[in-house]
Amino acid sequence: MKNYKVTLIRGDGIGPEIVAEAVKVLDKTGEKFGFKVEYADALMGGCAIDATGVPLPQETIDMCLKSDAVLLGAVGGAKWDNLPGHLRPEAGLLGIRGALKLFANLRPAKIYGPLKSACPLREEIIGDSMDIMVVRELTGGIYFGKRGREMVDGVEAAYDTEYYTAAEVERIARVAFEAARKRNRRLCSVDKANVLESSRLWRETVIRVSKDYPDVELNHLYIDNAAMQLVRNPKQFDVILASNIFGDILSDEASQVAGSIGMLASASLGEGKLGLYEPIHGSAPDIAGKGVANPLATILSVAMMLRYSLDEAEAADAIEAAVEKVLEDGIRTPDIYTEGCKKVGTVDMGDAVVAALEKV
Ligand code: NAD
Q: For the chain, what percent of residues have pLDDT higher than 90?
């Protein structure tokens, strides 16, 4: 039987509640598809600050590096908000991505048929559903380029630099092409090549890489047009590839179009198979400990883990189908509840997905 090592970073707020449900689902999937998962718990965020004084202990990094994948709940909370920046829980998030050399962020934005009413767009725009994957470069570009402040002729000025090497563009492009291959084989690369030199290098490089993926249809959009098309006709997109800053903006826009924050998963990947999987939402301190958090984003993050780190695509499909079934059966946590449905808490939602796995 295959064995996988998964590090669990439960984190703060609702983190431990939602990770517990995702673990239940992963174990059930293992039973069904013939693999076993060995878990190790690691600290990050507020709970790590309380226990060790820092948001990302070295021990956590070492444990993650030794595992096949990492599942993260969420970190942060008011208790730690007044600490200096490098000691805040969120510093752990940046730190772990850097330590694991995760340069690609994959964020699906999907509307499930039964949750269509959560989408802010009109029905004739959205149709039956929407299913987009945003692939964002995570460790380069303007967020990491040369920056500074200076006085110019007595006037204060500041600058940040959008800087990419062709190698950085190539490796994120390959992740996007591979993702497109696992989906509907369409890739839209986003840039501002009509204005920015860095975007011209981006576009040339993506075109060069595309020669290795003749089965994937490639097109290009300028960022301003892409932002508009996402709300005008989101169904045209399958995979969107973007730089760090453009991807930051587009992935948030796409998640708003999808509507429900408790439903959206994400993956951060590096050169190898090791990946970090987490819901896109935060630690939701307002509902922590109440047993009402929606665990589906974390459960769907486990499906991404199976697909991208563990090469268990069938098991990933089964989890996604089980989530669809639960939604079709009208089972809802309060955040996605509409009249006529059955309102359940976090644990019951996890149990419902486990039960649905028997049937898909
Ligand atoms: P949030 O995503 O935690 O919550 C926003 C709203 O969405 C809240 O009303 C919350 O109750 C609701 N919500 C979020 N997830 C939900 C779920 N699974 N089920 C039901 N409702 C859900 O964002 P915030 O309130 O801005 O931030 C809270 C804390 O989380 C802050 O400390 C912030 O820094 C941190 N944060 C962490 C991450 C992360 O760990 N990746 C991401 C974003 C924010």
A: 91
Atom of ligand 1 nearest to the CA of 284: 3
Residue ranges of E strands in 270-341:
275-279, 331-332
Tokens of 65: 């590096």
Q: Over range 148-163, report the average pLDDT.
A: 97
Supply φ then ψ for residue 221, to 5 degrees.
-135, 145
Structure tokens at 249: 């903006």
Annotated catalytic residue 143: yes
Whether the model clears a pTM of 0.70, i.e. scores above it, the answer is: yes
d(CA 192, CA 206): 13
Q: What domain range is 288 assigned to? A: 1-105+265-360
The total of other beta-carbon atoms located within 10 Å of residue 162's CB is 20
Q: Are residues 145 and 248 in the same domain?
A: yes
Q: 260 CA distance to ligand 1 centroid (A)? A: 12
Q: Is 90 in the pocket of ligand 1 (CB under 6 A)?
A: yes
For residue 169, what is the domain's CATH number? 3.40.718.10
Q: Compute the average pLDDT of residues 3-12.
A: 98
Burial class (CB in 10 A: 0-12, 13-18, 19+), 359: exposed
